[in-house]
Amino acid sequence: MPAWRYLNNFDWILFLAILAVCSVGLVVIYSATTGTPSAGAFHKQMIWLGLGLVLMLLALLIDYHTLAEFSYVFYGIGLLLLLLTLVYGRVVNASKSWLGFGGAQFQPSEFAKVATILMLAAYLGRERVRGLGALHFAALCAIVGLPVLLIMKQPDLGTAVTFAPLFAGAVFIGGIRVRTLVVLTLVATLALPMAWGHLKPYQKERVKTFLEPTRDPKGSGYQLIQSLIAVGSGGVLGKGFLAGTQGQLQFLPEQHTDFVFAVLAEERGFIGALLMLGLYFVIIYRCLATARSARDRLGVFLSIGVVCTFAGQALLNIGVVVGMLPTTGVPLPLMSYGGSSLASTMLGMGVVLNVWMRRLVN
Amino acid sequence: MAMGFEQDYKGFQDYYEARRLNTRIHVIQVLFGAVLVLYLFAFWYLQVVKVDYYKRLSDNNRLRRVTLMPLRGVITDAEHRVLANNRIAFNVRLDREKVADMKAFFPRLAGILGVPEKTLNERLAKYHGRPAFEPVILKEDVDLAEAAYIESRRLELPMLSVEVESRRNYLYGPFAAHALGYVGEVSEDQIKKTDSSGEYELGEIVGKAGVEKQYDDDLKGVKGWKQVVVNSLGREIQEIEEGRKPNPGRSMRLSIDLDLQRALEDAYADEAGSAVFLDPSSGAILAMISRPAFDPNVFAHRFSQDTWESVVNDPRNPLQNRVSLSKFAPGSVFKIVMSIAALEEGVATPSRGDHCTGSWRFGDKVYQCWAVRKGGHGYLTMREAIIQSCNVYFYHLGNDMGIERISKWAHLMGFGEPTGIDLPHEQAGTVPDPEWKKRAMPRDPTWHPGETISVSIGQGAIEVTPIQMATFAAAIGNGGTLYRPHLLQSREVREGVEEEERQDYVVRRVELHPRTLELIRNAMWGVVNEDGTGGRAKIAGRDVCAKTGTAQVFKASRDIDADKLPKEKRDHAWFVGFAPKDDPKIAWAVFVQNGGHGGTTAAPIARLVLERFFQKQDARQGGQQVASVAVPQ
Fold it and tell me: Which chain B residues touch A307 with a CB distance below 8 Å?
């Protein structure tokens, strides 16, 4: 069946919700960066949004089964790019996570994320993997573990953390037994203090600060406090476009990247935050609906992989903004400034639209 | 390969698997939904419940209150001639943000400013840790030419700018420095003390001494403020309209007459000591001096630490106000108090006669008269005893009277208590009596009769300040009224509107018998006009009345001609009086440190000032304008 015929089954709600979030994101980026050294962010983000739409269209038009067939190719390219990054990468904020091509540059970890989703879904989607035995579980760990290790090496903990919800979602939907799940959770809880010992000093600092933000208000607690001030002072209706003092006067650090939602909440108030949380819920809900209606296991796991990555990042990010989670440096998908993240998210959403479009068996 | 995949992905094998997937997807959906709802509550809590709290924090973040400093009030003399005002000063400032390499730039900067690189580095170091946009003052108070040089090279030297600042300016330098005082940055102690009211803030200029300190509340004016929006670095982004303009300080007119002050300054030449001239009918101070003096302009500078320290650490202590803060033995001037006490208490009559043989044996000690070498003064009446300043006469008088009555009259005449002059930290001096001795000298608490003998001629434990002496002289001149000496004549209440100080300056009216006054005035007239010890202050037709005195420095000097001793071993000289004899217009105390005899050094100083005073008085009566002090130095 020609691709255009599928357009009758296109998920307009999901697509429009994505466009709406991106547009609001652009406006907030514009407001947060006007008159600051990052004033060029708005135009760059526009270009990346265009590119993201093209990628989405590509991911939409090629049958997801075909994409799954080549998943190991994408996965291999992803790992290769991560290796290249470790060698040739550019250092930004003390982590080597960028690759440059001429004038443009992007984060291979974002591309690797989509490749990993594909690879996981392609593996779990097969009939043989039903039931998720120990061997299959080990395979999942390997598929997710390889890119995560390479990304940790950069080191970019924020991006590495976003693989966790993907892995958890895959394992859960993949059919892990509830008993096994409970045991694993217990082991993880016990292992946590050991992991604490392996954290870098600044990472420990972030966790401590989260637990007690006023401990060091000028240092690591600063972001957290300023974010709360930005959100709280927005009130019900917000301070208005370009009028958010916390963002405009640069009290709020990372105002157009990690704390873009705080700027939104400051300028648009509780109403704005409410509407935005609603849009995110619509996107998550439509992705899960796609997973439910997918015509085969591959479709289920593709949708689940994308939605878990997406929702996981969004919830981690917003949790930081309202002071419920420690600062992790996870961008808010579709809203935060950052081309690679935007493009990879659009690519992933393209795959979900693809699954929905081809849900009906004929 | 492709075949294998196709084989695998072919829909769900059975109904149960589809259901299980559906259930687990549902679990994920509920989980995500629950977290989103949780966040929604978080936003609701922050933005609806705690909105006021965070709004306040946000305002604290972005709004800064900037203080606007008022201009300090102008101080003038009695004839509205400016003594202290504010002038424009230019400071060269460095914008650190515009210098890429400070190390490379500084040698060149040192050349441009003519300031050693080391000094520049020290000044820069003070700003370490301050926000980078805050300009550094590298050189202060440059002249107009240098300011113009810097300003005209803004393209070439964009990091340098010229700041205009108001600076206290004392037009006559060290003239009347101790009356005017000086200003300086408020001390940390002062800030701490006034912390609750928030009256002072760091770097604020306040009066530190003299009138500047005494009337600081009036002179400093009322600070204004404006609110500015700042960003996270503290840089000013915009000004908000609300705020208040600063109110300039009130101008003050002092009773000081610049012409008399100049005559006094000239008359003192290089002598140390102090003098005060006042109006006996009000206590208004017409001129006052304390030497060695200092230039109060020195303290208005931020960087001139060298000159500053040389003043502060000078062993001669030029900052000390010797008019109201230093106390000395009154010497023979105290014989006037003795005479008044004896006459009023009925211990002696004006005609009381006595015989001076040059010394007097009392107990096991011999008390000498200064005329011991010529065999004493012989027979003297009280008037003659004052004119000749005979010691033996007053030894006897003191012994007859007793210390209690002496002390009573010394207190009545204003000694042993602050005069209330409007200058900070006045000293009370000491008028000894048995009670005082018990308190002050617990190791030897008994009053010895010999001590009364010493006090009788103004030596021993008795100590007075020059301002007490002048107030006392004025009281004799005006018939017994002690006025509170004061510098403030009037102050500005509104712009251009002056209000005379209408205070009651009378401290006490001492009822003195006319005969007492007559005799004392007569005798003091004689001191100057009848071959007495104060002959050098005689001005024909002016009827100058005075008494000389000597405050002993070394016991030995009683036998030696004081004028021939090395300067630092000489006695201190007093010359205290009023003029003219009837209806006095001016009263004074002149004190010359190590001046030897009062008549030798102190009297000529008084004479020079009096001549100027009467010259001006005549001119006023003649309706002419007297040439006033010309251009400031």
Answer: 28
CA distance A99 to chain B (A): 30
- Best of B32, B48, B64 to substitute, by most chain A Cβ atoms within 10 angstroms, is B32
A265 interaction partners in chain B (CB closer than 8 Å): 43, 46-47
How many angstroms separate the CA of residue B231 from the nearest CA in chain A? 4
Is B64 within 8 Å of chain A by CB? no
Per residue in B4-43, pLDDT (tens digit) is: 344 456 566 667 777 888 889 999 999 999 999 999 999 9
Q: Furthest-apart CA pair in chain B: how many Å?
A: 151
**Contact between residue A304 and residue A125 where contact means Cβ atoms under 8 Å apart:** no
CB contact under 8 A, B46 and A231: yes
pLDDT tops 80 at residue A336: yes
pLDDT confidence of residue B304: 58
Distance CA B288, CA B104 (A): 54
Max alpha carbon distance in chain A (Å)? Answer: 63
ipTM of predicted assembly, 2 dp: 0.91
Which of B142-156, B266-280, B337-351, B578-592 shows the lowest per-residue confidence on average (mean pLDDT)?
B142-156
Checking if the pLDDT of B337 tops 80, the result is yes
Predicted pLDDT at B526: 93
CB pair distance less than 8 Å for B25 and A311: no
Q: A325 in helix, strand or coil?
A: coil
Find the residue in A nearest to B8 (Cα).
Answer: A126
Neighbours of B204 (CB within 10 A): 15
Q: What single-letter DSSP state applies at residue B155?
A: T
**DSSP reduced 3-state for A194:** helix
Cross-strand pairs, B278: B285, B587
Q: What is the CA radius of gyration of chain A?
A: 20
**Cα angle: A124, vertex A127, A133; to 5 degrees:** 60
Percent of the residues in chain B that have a pLDDT greater than 90, as a whole number: 42
How far is the first Cα of chain B from the last one, in angstroms, to the nearest whole number?
105
- Is cis: bond before B174, omega within 30 of 0? no
Give the domain ranges of chain B: 87-168
**pLDDT band at A213, cuts 50/70/90?**
low
What is the Cα–Cα distance from B83 to B262, expressed in whole angstroms? 12
Query: B87-168 in CATH: which number?
Result: 3.90.1310.10
- Interchain contact B49–A (C-beta under 8 A): no
What pLDDT is recorded for position B228? 75
Question: Within 10 A of A240 (CB to CB), how many other CB atoms are there?
Answer: 13
B237 or B609, higher pLDDT: B609
Distance CA A8, CA A276 (A): 28
pLDDT confidence of residue B129: 65
Give the other-Cβ count within 10 Å of B128's Cβ: 6
User: B8 — contact with chain A (CB < 8 Å)?
Assistant: yes
pLDDT for residue B4: 39
| pTM given for the model | 0.66
* Segment 198-217 of chain A within 8 Å of chain B by CB: none
Contacts of A297 in chain B (CB under 8 A): 9, 12
Residues comprising chain A, all counted: 362
Label residue B590 left, alpha or beta by phi (over 0 means left) and psi (-120 to 50 means alpha): beta
CB contact under 8 Å between A246 and B10, yes or no, is no
Q: B8, A249: Cβ pair inside 8 Å?
A: no
CA separation, residue B489 to residues B77, B177, B276, B578, B614 (Å)? 9, 18, 16, 21, 21
> What pLDDT digit, counting tens, does each position of B566-595 carry?
666 778 899 999 989 999 999 999 999 888
Among candidates A91, A112, A90, A110, which has minimal Cα distance to A99? A90
Whole-number Å distance between alpha carbons of B237 and B397: 81
What was the pLDDT predicted at B502?
74
Of A124, A171, A45, A172, the C-alpha closest to A299 is A124
